Amino acid sequence: MHALIVGISYTGKSMLAKRIAAGLAAHNNIIVYDPLQSANWPESALLFSSPEKFLAHVEQAQNAYVFVDEAKTLWDHDEKRADALLYKRRHQGLLVFLIAQRATMIKPNARNQCSRLYAFKQTSDDARALAGDYDDSIRDMITRLPPCEFIATNGHTVERFKLDFSNGIPPTYTPAQA
């Protein structure tokens, strides 16, 4: 079950990814592609800013959670190998979290490999694409989300959350009031 995390700039998508990674790091291998080399990934995570080194590593990796921040840059570097990350590497026990500003930056076939969606505010075009991929009821909702609020859906149920920075970074997340 791969996951897609999307949201316009400064809505909280990388912070959410880091929170999820922190929760998984105690008992799991974490591999991160982050071309911006941002802070606050778990200390135990293997961090890559080079797409080539990252792809070479994940092609050999087994049983890990993989976070791909600025996902479009990986597809721009090597589309065939990036596609294989989603289509073939799950058989190696890799669960991938794709992180992008806009849903439409990720090809429909790649988005469709992600059975879980975490969506922060999106443009109407991106919201329409996500509604078609997951659940029509989310379209209007995600165009109006305030910063740090997001919806999570598996295409059957939709929940709304808010990032909480009161306990530091990475933040926790709690159910949000609709």
How would you explain this protein's 3D organization?
This protein is of the alpha/beta class and 178 residues long. It contains 7 helices and 9 strands. The chain has helices spanning 13-25, 51-60, 71-77, 79-87, 108-111, 124-133, 139-143; strands spanning 2-6, 29-33, 46-48, 64-68, 94-100, 114-119, 149-153, 158-164, 172-175. The protein has a 9-stranded mixed β-sheet with strand order 3-2-4-5-1-6-7-8-9, sandwiched between helices. The radius of gyration is 15 Å and the shape is globular.
Please supply descriptive tags for the structure shown above.
178 residues, alpha/beta, 7 helices, 33% helix, globular
Termini separation comes to 27 Å
Q: What order do the helices and strands follow?
A: EHEEHEHHEHEHHEEE
Report the C-alpha radius of gyration, rounded.
Answer: 15 Å
Q: What percentage of amino acids are in beta strands?
A: 25-35%
> What order do the strands of the largest sheet run in, or round the barrel if closed?
3-2-4-5-1-6-7-8-9
Summarize the amount of helix as a percent range: 25-40%
What's the tally of helices?
7
Largest sheet: 9 strands, mixed
User: In terms of per-residue confidence, which ranges show pLDDT below 50 for 5 or more consecutive residues?
Assistant: none
Based on Cα principal axes, name the global outline. Answer: globular
Class by SSE composition: alpha/beta
- Average pLDDT confidence is 93
Q: Tally the beta strands.
A: 9
Oligomer state of the chains in this structure = single chain
